[in-house]
Amino acid sequence: MSDTTTATAASVAPASTETVLSVENLKMHFPVKGSGVIRRTVGHVKAVDGVSFEVAKGSALGLVGESGCGKSTTGRMVTRLYKPTEGKINFEGTDIADYSGRKLQPMRREIQMIFQDPSTSLNPRHTVGSIIGAPLRIHNMVPKDKVLGRVQELLELVGLNPEHYNRYPHEFSGGQRQRIGIARAMTLQPKLLVADEPVSALDVSIQAQVINLLQDLQREFDISYLFIAHDLAIVRHFCPEVAVMYLGKIVEIGDRRSIYEHAHHPYTQALLSAVPDVKQASIGGRRERIRLEGDVPSPINPPSGCHFRTRCSLAKDICSVVEPPLLQIGKKHKVACHFPGELHQHPEKPVTAPLLGVDEFGAPDPGASPAEIPGDGPGYANTWYDLANNSRGSV
Ligand SMILES: Nc1ncnc2c1ncn2[C@@H]1O[C@H](COP(=O)(O)OP(=O)(O)OP(=O)(O)O)[C@@H](O)[C@H]1O
């Protein structure tokens, strides 16, 4: 049975582990400019629209979802390549969302990024030695005469020949180039690595080797990962916790088991239905395939209420009127759906309505008393909404 279904209204979770990153209500709205001479702002692309999550020390949070849902933008805000429109990025307890210039410099050492395509993220005119050594020189990490030695150590660390420091990126294979990208990210001994589709440009046979390398580094240096990927099988293998994004929002987040074995959001269920299921295949069966109709709507003008409702087979009146809150329904499980439930077990009535003070159609209900939403915020609360008993928990 899942953590979700066995949770009682007043279950108490054990003390949480140390948090490295805590992101709160993070937003990135890119301005859309008109075509006139003045180029006025005529709208905004709501690429990320209020996401909250935590990454524990030495752990990995996977960020999954279809193309364009805001995964990369979230990663780029965390590494502060982008300045967020709104929200907090608490890294080891300090909010770096508004940092700029000099203040950001020390953070750049601690949070590094690994990019999808190693051939475009490495300068073809520089030798591997100068690519990996550059951060050491910029940040004055080691004396000049020690840079080469450190570069060679890093090459060895990622499984490359340390004597190849004088070669150029094109002299390496795709997998080796990604190892160079990883060595560069490791140069400054970061605490958090944001890996944006780190293996999707590689041959399947090479993917496992690079994933193993990332795991070895994690074990050896206690690194935490924000791991962005569209491949749910890889995320399942790599990440103890997973967040599912749709059109700029997190629709479901939880530990591996809650997401992969007890998904409660129809979007997560549809994504999972496309992943080959080895267990099912071994007993001669096939996982039921759920097809999502239509395209992802534009983030410039997302649907009212629940962003997913235009493609959702469960959608009812309330879904177009009220946005579902990210409701904690298990010890480590939150879902943003008015009708959360395991596949084919979704409730008839919106469980969120009483909490939000609305009736089942989403209209204000004068008799209801809206309540605080369990789990609202980046982490997990000690109490959660018990779906089995349809009641709110209390400490
Ligand atoms: N600099 C930008 N200016 C305007 N819109 C942007 C910008 N960067 C991203 N977007 C838009 O924001 C939305 C989210 O993009 P993002 O790249 O974060 O999604 P993603 O989930 O990482 O997708 P993919 O897997 O294709 O990279 C998309 O609609 C994209 O077109």
TrEMBL record:
One matching Pfam family: oligo_HPY
Span of domain ABC transporter: 32-272
UniProt KW keywords: ATP-binding, Nucleotide-binding, Transport
GO BP terms, alphabetized: peptide transport; transmembrane transport
UniProt key word Transport: yes
Name of protein: Peptide/nickel transport system ATP-binding protein/oligopeptide transport system ATP-binding protein
Family label: Belongs to the ABC transporter superfamily.
SUPFAM superfamilies given in the database record: P-loop containing nucleoside triphosphate hydrolases
GO molecular function: ATP binding; ATP hydrolysis activity
